[in-house]
Amino acid sequence: MFSRLREDIASIRQRDPAARSSWEVLTCYPGLHAIVMHGWARWCWTRDLRWLGRFISHIARTLTGIEIHPGATIGRRVFIDHGMGVVIGETAEVGDDCTIYQGVTLGGTSLSKGAKRHPTLARGAIIGAGAKVLGSFTVGEDAKVGSNAVVVKEVPAGATAVGNPARIIQKETEPAAQDAAARRFAAYGITPNGDDPLSKALHGLIDNATSQEQQINQILAALKAAGIACQAGQAGDKFDPAQLNRLVE
Q1: Residue 161 β-bridge partners
Q2: Taking Cα atoms as reference points, which of 136, 65, 124 lies closest to residue 100?
Q3: Nearest to 164 by CA among 196, 200, 203
Q4: For 2-6, 11-15, 41-45, 129-133, which range has the lowest pLDDT when averaged over its residues?
């Protein structure tokens, strides 16, 4: 028990630059308190002391603002940062080294008792603040869910899910020299160049339209120089790619 507590404290200090000492983490981090009390509730739950397990879970929720059902499975070195408003359902499974920020819901979309209703977070998954992960699917190893995303389908290993409903950004090839821990961890699920894929597509369409407009102007200029008259089209608003790009940022 104490070795696991030391392990949890060490992992929190590694992932949170605001943690100045182990004593501060032990006494002031509600995420750690919720994990410890969940261990007690889980112990009761697995020994058919269901009411006592739920009562301990309720006390933990009152003290920490984090609600973890005693039936949920929580791995090692799980870090619930800030934590207020986190809800983890009965059949949820959280793998080792996962990070969960405030306002996250690991919820179920089925009313079937006894069935797997809640998501599974594979090792190293990061769930950003306010994200809702709803359903009995898996968020893959080292995957990231951006803040306020609503995820209702599986997220592949190493990918990032952003938006509502969430869209998947596949993992890009990273330099071999980059530190492995830096590749794995990204605060709040934010990754470099992790733009919304819909936004990227719109930017691409705007750039393509700009290129086509330039080509058309060159063709018209060449025809005019050759003495070929072209009837001007109906005047409209001037195309401003910079303004359109700002609108979709």
Answers
A1: 145, 168
A2: 124
A3: 196
A4: 2-6
Phi, psi of 7 (to 5 degrees): -60, -45
Q: CA–CA separation, 143 vs 66, rounded Å?
A: 23
Q: How far apart, in whole angstroms, are the C-alpha atoms of residue 125 and residue 160?
A: 10
Name the CA radius of gyration of the chain, rounded: 25
- Cα–Cα distance measured from residue 199 to residue 229, given in angstroms and rounded to the nearest whole number: 39
B/e letters for 21-41, b = 16+ CB within 10 Å, e = fewer, are eeeebbeebbbbbbbbbbbbb
Phi, psi for 192 (deg, rounded to 5)? -60, 135
Q: pLDDT tens digits, residue range 81-107?
A: 998 999 999 999 999 999 999 999 999
What is the rounded distance in angstroms from the CA atom of residue 161 to the CA atom of residue 48?
37
Calculate the alpha carbon distances from 127 to 94, 107, 179, 180, 230 in Å. 11, 13, 21, 19, 57
Closest by CA position to 143, among listed 181, 186, 196: 186
- CA–CA gap between residue 235 and residue 207 (Å, rounded): 22
Q: Mind listing the pLDDT tens digit for each residue in 206-233?
A: 888 888 888 888 887 888 788 787 766 6
Omega cis (within 30) before 17: no
